[in-house]
Amino acid sequence: MPAFEWPPPHPSEEYVLPHNIFGDDSRKIRYSDVDRMLVAALAAGGYSAKNYYSVPRGFALATRIEQINEDGTPKMPPARFALEPEAVSILRPMDYLKALLKGVPGFYRVIVFIVTDIPLRASGARPTEAEATVWVSSGQSVLDRHVGDIEFTADANCTALVYEFMRKPGADSSATEFSSPGHLDAMTHLVKSGIWRGFGAH
Amino acid sequence: MTRIAVQRGSNSRADDLDTAGFQGLDSVRTKLAVVWFSGACLILLLVVLQTLNGRYGDHVQEAWTWLMPNLMPTLGTILAGLGYTALDPHRSHAMVRSSFSLLSLWISAFYLVLVLLTILIAPTRPEGVTGKGAVELMHTANLWLGPLQGLVATALGVLFASKQKRRTGKPADEVSDAAD
């Protein structure tokens, strides 16, 4: 698997997923089990495209960059995975007036799950939207078997790194900037994206 | 028009012409000025609000560079025409054919609506959501606004900028108008 930048770029927000969402602590599980649950949760949130990367003693799973609403919910397709701003319908008068007078801000999100037993400490690097965009295309589509066989011990963690990007109202689509801190916390992102529901935890 | 002229007790040549599908030049000019200044004020106010709110991002200057040539020459012509006669104590009795007056009013209104629509429609187009995209739409609109502005300028030029022949020692209401 291609290597993910290590330490990972500074995220807008991060959240360490509790062990119990991957099952009973007494049961021995492997990275492949964690991967299966992550994939199921992502599918519940409508994420079909994802890429795997290797990280020291583990793996990273990156989602495709998506366009979201201000409250963290994904835009409706096809706007969701399109980077171009979404047009505003005149049938939504308040949204239209806001778009007419102020312009429409753009919010974009990439979530990277990192599963490793090495304590995670992000670098100070701030990713660009262009870098985040290729995270879903430069990795590997499946998890390597030898990585999947690693046991998910009590020392291991699955950390969700949320990378948020924002385009100011009126700004060009290329003028998207990394947001740190994010305008929403990591847990809100996980809930609003539908991923959290996919873990079966509400 | 006939009724108004009678109420004013005027028995000049204008009364006869009113009944034959003519309108007073002053009245036509006033109507056009109202249409143009109210339309332009609305558009300018909208773009000022957009500018102050950052709607055009880094493309503010381009937006105004598009807007000003679309409004100011005609507003200038109207203002100059009104200003030219503002100090004249005599009411002009020059007449304009109603059909030409109506045509000028409709072309003006149509033109202003198209300018306004160019701004209003931008957020509903994916390419017009960003400031850059909105300005690109404005430039596209020049394809039809340019020729139409030529028609507007011709009509308003006749009504506001045509020279009136004056008879020496006679009041202004005894002149014939170029549009007449």
Terminus-to-terminus distance of chain B? 16 Å
Number of H/I helices of chain A: 6
Number of strands of chain B: 2
Shape estimate of chain B = elongated
What percent strand of chain A?
15-25%
What is the makeup of the main sheet of chain A? Answer: 7 strands, antiparallel
- Beta fraction of chain B: under 5%
Q: Given the structure, what is the number of helices of chain B?
A: 6
Largest sheet of chain B: 2 strands, antiparallel
Query: How many structural domains are formed by the residues of chain B?
Result: 1
Work out the oligomeric state of the chains in this entry: heterodimer
* Overall number of domains of chain A: 1
Evaluate the radius of gyration of chain B.
20 Å
Greatest contact between two chains: A-B, 22 and 22 residues
First CA to last CA of chain A: what distance? Answer: 33 Å
Given the helix and strand composition of chain A, which structural class is it? alpha+beta
- Described by the principal axes of the CA atoms, the overall outline of chain A is elongated
| Uncertain parts of chain A | none
> Structural class of the secondary elements of chain B?
mainly alpha
Give the helices and strands of chain A as they follow along the chain.
Answer: EHEEEHEHHEEHH
Textual characterization of the structure:
The complex is a heterodimer of chains A (202) and B (180). Chain A has 202 residues and is an alpha+beta fold. Chain A has one domain. In chain A, 22% of the residues lie in helices and 23% in strands. Chain A has 6 helices and 7 strands, in the order E-H-E-E-E-H-E-H-H-E-E-H-H. Chain A has helices spanning 31-44, 93-101, 129-134, 145-148, 186-193, 195-198, and strands at 13-17, 50-55, 58-63, 66-68, 106-116, 157-167, 176-179. In chain A, strands 1, 2, 3, 4, 5, 6 and 7 form a 7-stranded antiparallel β-sheet that branches. In chain A, a hairpin with an 8-residue loop joins strand 6 and strand 7. The radius of gyration of chain A is 17 Å and the shape is elongated. The mean pLDDT of chain A is 88. With 180 residues, chain B is mainly alpha-helical. Chain B has one domain (24-85, 96-163). Chain B has helices spanning 2-7, 13-19, 25-52, 60-86, 98-121, 131-161, and strands at 22-24, 95-97. The model of chain B is unreliable at 1-11, 14-18 and 166-180 (pLDDT under 50). Chains A and B meet through helix 2 of A and helix 3 of B.
